[in-house]
Design goal:
Layout (H helix, E strand, L loop, with lengths): L1 E2 L2 E2 L2 E4 L8 E5 L6 E4 L1 H12 L2
Antiparallel strand pairs: 1-2, 3-4, 4-5
Length: about 50
């Protein structure tokens, strides 16, 4: 993400176990993050772990 010519880095945490939510966290401020609902996390999980 680019704001005012700066970059913002995030960490994506997706476990390999179906039925769980995922988490997207600002790398510079780990107190602020976003929960990714189970349905969308399952889709991400398929892409990450099943290639």
């Amino acid at each position: 993400m680019i704001r005012n010519n700066t970059q913002q880095k995030f960490v994506l945490n997706v476990a390999d176990e179906d039925g769980r939510t995922a988490l997207l966290v600002d790398a510079a401020d780990s107190e602020h993050g976003y929960t990714i609902p189970t349905k969308q996390a399952n889709e991400l999980r398929k892409k990450i772990y099943n290639g």
